[in-house]
Design goal:
The chain is an alpha/beta fold. The chain has a domain at 5-166 and 199-227 and 284-299: NAD(P)-binding Rossmann-like Domain (Rossmann fold). The protein has helices at 13-24, 36-42, 59-66, 83-100, 133-151, 174-181, 202-213, 233-244, 256-263, 267-272, 288-294, 302-316, and strands at 5-8, 29-33, 50-53, 71-74, 104-110, 156-161, 163-165, 187-190, 196-197, 199-201, 221-224, 231-232, 250-253.
C-alpha cells in the first residue's frame, strides 16, 4: 500500500514518535532521512515503513518524496548554531514541496514565540512577545507557513509543545541525564531548580500531532498541547534519580557569567544562554482548545514517562 504520510526529520524524538503514532493508527508511513543505516536502527521495530534517503536542502529530493502524499509532517530540526542561516531555508523547501503536492503541512511548534509571559496558562490567543533570536525565527517560520498555504489554498496545522523528554530525544544533553543517572553519576541541568516548567513525554506529543493532522477539524488551525504534570526542574531530576534506583547528586548551571564564559568557547552553549529564561520563569501551556477538539491531552505522568525513557536508554545505548 502506497503511503499517504511523509515524515521529514523522522529520526528526531518528535519525528520518530509521529511515525510510531501513525503506525499505531494503522497508517502507512514514508520517512525522509539523510542516512539509511541510521534509519534502519531507529525503525527496526517498524519493518514496513518506506525509507526515502535524500537531502533536505535539495528541492528535487524533497519534491520527489512529497509526490502523492496527503500529509507532510515537518519534524526536521537542526543544531542551534545553524538556526540563523538554515532554519527558514529548510522550512521553505519542504513547505513549497508539500503545497505543490497539495499535501497538508503539519508543524510541531514550541513556546519560543511567546517570550516572557505575565500569566499562566498560555493559550493560543496569548500575544507573541519573543525577545530571543530563536523565538523571532520561530515566529517567522509560523508566519511563513500560514502565508504560503493561504496564498496557494493549501492546508496546515501547528501544534505547539513545551520541551520534550522520552525515547529518541537525543541532543547531547537530555540523553546524558539518563545515561549518567543509570550509573549514579552527577546529573547536570540548567536553570533555577525551583522554577515550575513543563516537560511533555515525546510519544504523547507524537500522538497529538498525528491526531490533529488526520482530522479535518485542524485544517489551518493552531493548538497548544501541555505536559501531563508541570513540575520544578528539581522535581524532574529527583524523579529521574528515584526511577534509576541509584543515588546521583544534582548540579544546576544558572549563572549568566558562567554561560557567557563557556559560550566564548562553545557555539552551542553560546546559543543556549538566551533560552535560559525558559528554565527560570514559569511558562505552562493551556490545552483547552486541543482537548475540546480532540478529547484528550497528555496521558503519561512523570514517573511513567521517566521509566519508559530509561527502558529505551538501556536498550538503545547498550
Amino acid at each position: 500500500m502506497e503511503s499517504r504520510n511523509l515524515v521529514i526529520g523522522a529520526t528526531g524524538g518528535i519525528g520518530r514518535s509521529v511515525v510510531k503514532a501513525l503506525i499505531e493508527r494503522g497508517e502507512s508511513v514514508s520517512v525522509f532521512i539523510r542516512n539509511k543505516e541510521k534509519a534502519e536502527k531507529y525503525f527496526a521495530e517498524f519493518p514496513n515503513i518506506e525509507i526515502i534517503e535524500g537531502n533536505a536542502y535539495s528541492s528535487f529530493d524533497i519534491e520527489q518524496a512529497c509526490l502523492e502524499k496527503q500529509n507532510v509532517f515537518y519534524c526536521c530540526n537542526i543544531p542551534y548554531p545553524e538556526w540563523k542561516h538554515d532554519a527558514k531555508k529548510l522550512l521553505r523547501i519542504s513547505l513549497h514541496a508539500a503545497i505543490k503536492s497539495k499535501a497538508k503541512f503539519i508543524f510541531p511548534g514550541n513556546v519560543y514565540v511567546y517570550g516572557h509571559v505575565k500569566s499562566n496558562p498560555v493559550s493560543e490567543n496569548y500575544p507573541w512577545n519573543a525577545h530571543t533570536r530563536k523565538g523571532n525565527i520561530r515566529i517567522e517560520m509560523e508566519n511563513l507557513i500560514k502565508e504560503r498555504t493561504s496564498e496557494r489554498h493549501g492546508k496546515y496545522c501547528i501544534v505547539r509543545f513545551p520541551d520534550f523528554y522520552g525515547p529518541y530525544v537525543v541532543n547531547d544533553f537530555s540523553e546524558k541525564l539518563y545515561l549518567n543517572a543509570r550509573k549514579g553519576k552527577k546529573l547536570i541541568w540548567i536553570g533555577n531548580p525551583n522554577t515550575i516548567t513543563e516537560y511533555v513525554f515525546v510519544e504523547d506529543a507524537g500522538k497529538a500531532l498525528v491526531e490533529a493532522a488526520l482530522s479535518n477539524k485542524s485544517d489551518n488551525q493552531e493548538y497548544n498541547f501541555p505536559s501531563n504534570s508541570p513540575c520544578t526542574n528539581k522535581e524532574y531530576l529527583n524523579t529521574v534519580i528515584k526511577v534509576s534506583g541509584k543515588n546521583s547528586s544534582t548540579h544546576f548551571l544558572n549563572s549568566n557569567i558562567l554561560f557567557f564564559t563557556l559560550g566564548l568557547f562553545n557555539k552551542t552553549i553560546c546559543e543556549l544562554k538566551e533560552m535560559l529564561y525558559l528554565k527560570r520563569e514559569k511558562l505552562v501551556l493551556d490545552g483547552h482548545k486541543f482537548k475540546s477538539t480532540f478529547g484528550f491531552l497528555s496521558e503519561t505522568n512523570l514517573d511513567s514517562g521517566v521509566k519508559k525513557t530509561f527502558e529505551w536508554a538501556n536498550n538503545f545505548f547498550r
